[in-house]
Amino acid sequence: MPRCKKEENVRITPRDIRILQSVAENQFLTTSQISFLHFPSIHRGRKRLRILAQNDFLKRTRLLQGFENLAAEAIYYIGRPGLQVLTAHGVLSDMMPIPKLTFRPGSFMFLSHTLMRNSFRIALECSLRLNPIVSLHDWKHDNSITQRVLIPNPTTQSLERIPLRADAHFQLKKNERITEFYLEVDNGTTPLTRLVSKLKAYNILRRTQIIGNYVNQPKIRILVLMFSEKRAKNLIERLRKYGSTNFRDSVCLIASCERDKLLTIQIVEKAFWFQLTPQGISRTSLSNEIDNKNLDKNLVDSYIYN
């Protein structure tokens, strides 16, 4: 991308600091994502982002043509002057400098996955602005959970070690009730058999955590965000085979949506998450998940005493 002439004495505004902080926290953001968060229109967003990039507060690049419909988007990550601004204003906290983007096929897959995770977070935060009684706490990403869980493999009659690395972990709080969520963003590259094993491992981990401290332990849910309705239905059908045992009481919430519509979804209140129940499949919203306070208590009782 050709370099543009720097502007002298660029005045950093409070909104610029919020933009730099958003980019640093999320690693990579597109023009649309930044504009959705901080500007009334994408046109105004482009103008300001161009100035920040010309002066190296932000770095920007583009993906190759035809990759995940993102070729028209500039992608921004933090520059050294931007980190210096955040440090000077005391908002850098524990964030680490973002490594320079490398152009390898693996990097493209990582970048696409990261951008979809960030779109979910932006949609979640914007949804919470419309629902002030629900609040977001303790968001973490990038190996927010790193566990290895043993699950039985009925085919080989042995135990299989499954690594768990959640794409994000966060808590939603409503009326003093807290529910924890682990987010798995599915880009369609993982075989469904492996994904089912991963969700079974999450369920075992969840039961272990509840039993260890079931009085004070918040509810735990695993959100699986998919971008193919057909693939989501196939996953649900596979999980239904375990509905009477491993997936009792609906540990998993599964949803599919179009990639370009993710930013505008009302994630907290919209009942578009498919929930597995002993009776079949129902739809639920995240706010309903917080309100339902008896589900995990029943799970603990049945698991301990049966």
List the helices and strands and how they pair.
Blueprint: H1 14-26, E1 29-30, H2 31-38, H3 42-54, E2 58-62, E3 74-78, H4 80-88, H5 105-129, E4 134-141, E5 146-153, E6 158-165, E7 168-174, E8 177-186, H6 192-212, E9 219-226, H7 229-240, E10 252-256, E11 273-277, E12 280-284, H8 286-291, H9 295-305
Parallel strand pairs: 8-9, 9-10
Antiparallel strand pairs: 1-3, 2-3, 4-7, 5-6, 7-8, 10-11, 11-12
Ends distance: 64 Å
Tell me the Rg in angstroms: 21 Å
- Strand-and-helix sequence, N→C? HEHHEEHHEEEEEHEHEEEHH
Average pLDDT for all residues = 78
Biggest sheet character: 7 strands, mixed
Q: What structural category characterises the helix and strand content?
A: alpha+beta
Query: Order of strands in the sheet with the most strands?
Result: 4-7-8-9-10-11-12
Helix proportion: 25-40%
Shape annotation: globular
Count of individual helical segments: 9
Q: What count of domains describes the coordinates? A: 2
Task: Please give the number of β-strands.
Answer: 12
Low-confidence stretches: 244-249, 298-306
**What fraction of residues sit in β-strands?**
15-25%
Protein architecture, described:
By secondary structure, the chain is α+β, with helices and mostly antiparallel strands. Helix content is 39%, strand content 25%. The chain contains nine helices and twelve strands. It has helices at 14-26, 31-38, 42-54, 80-88, 105-129, 192-212, 229-240, 286-291, 295-305, and strands at 29-30, 58-62, 74-78, 134-141, 146-153, 158-165, 168-174, 177-186, 219-226, 252-256, 273-277, 280-284. The strands form three sheets. The chain has a seven-stranded mixed β-sheet, sandwiched between helices. A three-stranded antiparallel β-sheet has the order 1-3-2. The longest helix has 25 residues, at 105-129. The protein is globular. The termini are far apart. Residues 244-249 and 298-306 have low confidence and may be disordered.
